[in-house]
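Weekly structure sync - notes
Attendees: PM, LS, DV (DV joined late)
Agenda: review two folding runs queued last week.

Item 1: First target. Sequence and C-alpha cells pasted below for the record.
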Amino acid sequence: MKEAIDTLRDILDKEACRLSNLSETESETVPASGKWSKKQILGHLIDSAANNHHRFVRAQLGDALVFPAYSQEQWVSVQNYQSEAWSQLVTLWTSYNRHLAHLMASIPEVKRNRRCFIGNQPPVSLEFLVQDYVRHLRHHLDQILG
C-alpha cells in the first residue's frame, strides 16, 4: 500500500502544475460526441475522490463495508463540471487528493484486509480499493495530459 500512497503523492507533486497550465479553452473542449472534456474527466476524478473518501473511512469503522456503486455519467452531468472554472477544479482535485494520501497513510495495517462490497461486485479488500483508486486516477490523468 505504501507504493500506492507514494505514487499518489508523486502524481500530485508533478501533475498539479501541468494541469494548472492547461487553458480554460483546452479544458472545456469536447473531443467527440459522447466523450468528456478535460473538465468533465477531472470532475469525474473529484467524484471518485469523494466516493473513495467515504469508502476509506467507513471501511475502517466496521467489520465490512457495504457501499453502493455510483453512476459516473449522472454524477458528472448533475454537477455540471463543464461550466466550472478550470482553476477551481484543479485546486479542489489537488487538495482533496492530498488529504486522501494522508488518510491512506493513516490506515492501520490490521484494517487493510477489511472486506468491501461495492454495488453488486465481488468483495475486495480496503487495500485493493486504495491501490485501484490510484490506478484509476493515473488512467484518467493520462487522458487529460496525454
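Item 2: Second target, run right after the first with the same settings.
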Amino acid sequence: MITLTRRRDWRTHLHLYLSAVKAQPLAYGTHDCGLGLAAAAIEAMTGVDIAAPWRGRYTTASGALKMLREDGFGGLEDLGRSLLPAVHPSMGQLGDVALIDTGDTLGAFGLVIGERILVLTETGTGSVDLLSAKLVFRVG
C-alpha cells in the first residue's frame, strides 16, 4: 500500500482535471477507468502517478485483465486493495476512487464526487449512485 498526501490546493487541481476530461471518450490503455480517470485524478490531487507500471501495456478490456493477472491481481479490486485503503461506500469522500460492478470480470473504477460517482462512458462521463459501489479506496 502506498501513502498519498493531497496537495494543499487539491480541489482546484481535481476540478481542472475533471473539466478537461468530461467529454473525452473511453480509450483502453490511455483514457480508461484506471489510467485516464482514477490514476490521473490521483495524480492531479497528489502529484503521484500510481499507474506508471501499467501505462502502455494494453489497448483493450481483455488486455487490461490479462495484464492485471500477469501482475498477480485477480482484477481491479485486488489492484485497488494493493495500493489504497478500502472503506465502505458510505464513507466515500470527494476524490476517493470507487469500484463499481459492471457485470463482467474487470469492473470499473470511478471517482467519488459527493453522493455520486463519476464514471467514464463511450462518449465522455456519466455518474452512478455512490452506494452502488462495491468498495471505495481512500486517496490521501
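Discussion on item 2: The helical segments are 10-21, 33-46, 61-70, 76-83.
Action: LS to circulate a short write-up before next sync.
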